[in-house]
Amino acid sequence: MHVLVAGGAGFIGSHTVVQLKNAGHDVTIVDDFDNSKATAVARVEALTDSHIPLHVFDLCDPDKTEALFAAERFDAVIHFAGHKAVGESVQEPLKYYKNNLDSTFSLLRAMATHGVRRLVFSSSATVYGDESPQPSQETYRPLQSSNPYGWTKVMNEQIIGDVARAGGFKVALLRYFNPVGAHASGTIGEDPQGIPNNLMPFISQVAVGRRDKLTVFGDDYDTADGTCERDYIHVEDLAAGHLAALEHIDEMVEPVRAFNLGTGVPTSVLGMIKAFETATGVPIPYEVGPRRAGDLPVTFADPSRARDELGWQTAKSIEDMCADTWRWQSANPQGYPG
Ligand code: UFG
Question: What is the reported pTM?
Fold first, then answer.
């Protein structure tokens, strides 16, 4: 297939492009480098020994998006593009609603106009809201979120689903749990701008000396060690989930289907610190601070639908996640250059 990867320079996008190329697909990337760097694409090209066509523009521009679809023939789209910082979305909700919805509108319109009817969309476990029993199952209703970023995922799922049902599309909505890790080469990985919001990049920046210590957000939750538990998934397993979805999308009976991408096994914050120290030999100084607003005690996936219907399951351990994150971070202490 010729796959248009929207947001292909980002953390999950770049790893997925490597796997798409290795599986023999043609890839074109569109990215505006709002939260990514051109170096990531150059490194993906080096890893795959190939040239990857790259279009640098904002997908919220419907004319540019239309022009790209008029010029190229795509068989499928994987839509990673979007803002993703939960806290920022609370401060600047319009930025999130505008960007994360307009980009989808442009893509869906161009896909409909040009008869491109396969779409894999980056959704999130955040759509399960605060009330879902754990582990989360795709059948859970109502979908909701506690922040504007999460609502853009709920709204995208609704809009994309309606368009799929009306227009003969086939859509896989992939609900990610907590993506971490990096390519085994250590040449591509997660490169957050500013102070990391998420646990794993914060730990690895402490390890490499960019930050003094980690703050553990609360140790008085009703969990085994008192800290929150999450379903961390290696980005390579996540990328493989996109390939599996793409390869099974024509067999889907329903026009739109959601799939959890997680391991099904939760790990606590303290458990992750310990695993990182064991895998890397680097001590992680930390202090316990107050709870972070909005954090749930425990979230993890029931990944059985993706296993049964896509033939996909995770292969990487928590140790792999830590070792691979560290290989990337220690080789690229400041992230990507440029
Ligand atoms: N944590 C800390 N210290 C930090 C950062 C995080 O203790 O410096 C803790 C958090 O309190 C939480 C756990 O580490 O208990 C994981 O936090 P992350 O921010 O890494 O991940 P979240 O589960 O909060 O967020 C993820 C995704 C979001 C998504 C959200 C809800 O990153 O995109 O799940 O599904 F919206």
Answer: 0.97
